[in-house]
Amino acid sequence: MIASSNGKCNPIRRFSADETLRATNNFNPLHTTQKSKLLPWSHTIKVDEPIDDAHYTMYMGSLDDRPIIVKEFEGTIMEDELRSFAIHDIVIKTQMSNHMNVLKLLGCCLEFRVLLLVLENPIHGVVNDKGALSRPIIHRDIRHGSFFWDHYLVPKFCNFSLSIKIPPNLLHADDDVNGIFGYLDPNYVISGSVTEKSDVYSFVVLLLVFFIGKKPDNVGWGTKFCSIIENGKAHIQNERFSKFQRSSSARYD
Fold it and tell me: Would you put residue 54 in left (φ > 0), alpha (ψ -120 to 50) or beta?
């Protein structure tokens, strides 16, 4: 982790197994706030694919009267790969620990087969400042399950396991395609080249999910790659967004 941070690393607390078990009531399913698939490298899933075999689970809990979230990595992929996901998540979170839109990492627990992450609890449940970093970080997993709301309704991104840094002096990074169909930038899927615009595309899809109230669907390649984009264009042409904005503004005037 220190090597990934150019010798600089923000200290994080080491939690004991007993503390994480007490906080989550022995990982009680009733404490579950989110379950999701971590995608093995070079693998994509459809947005509606079942997550019974989730690769990580996030539990709401409380420790020393402080609300926290415990992120447990598990699932059907190899432990070494899960461990790599967890470490990668920690590295990115520590580098972005001071950003208001990133869920703060409090520490980790090393007493399980795959380490656990302990995060702040933003209370409300389910854009990073890339210019503040020496190398841009591409999230690659911007979707409705990738962030929480705090009590001021400020979004906090929480999963950086698929994130990738743009190499120095370049505007893109070449890598295996990872992500969820429907949110993925078609150019990235076709070329394997990810840029900051890839996150912008995913963010636009996320906004359309909120505005239209539909999940993105993968219906093929090319211009029809994400049907919600076509749906959004239809809404704009019919001025439905402007009506939505006017009605929203009226409620807050």
Answer: beta
The alpha helices in the chain, defined as continuous H runs, are 17-24, 79-95, 186-191, 196-212, 227-237, 240-252
Can you tell me whether residue 74 is helix, strand or coil? coil
Rounded CA separation 76/39 (Å): 11
Give the phi and the psi of residue 150 in degrees, each rounded to 5.
Answer: -90, -175
Whole-angstrom distance, CA of residue 194 vs CA of residue 89: 19
| Average confidence score pLDDT of the chain | 75
Architecture of domain 3-252: 2-Layer Sandwich (3.30)
The more confident residue out of 241 and 215 is 215
User: What pTM, to 2 d.p., does this model score?
Assistant: 0.59
- Give me the residue spans of the domains in the chain: 3-252
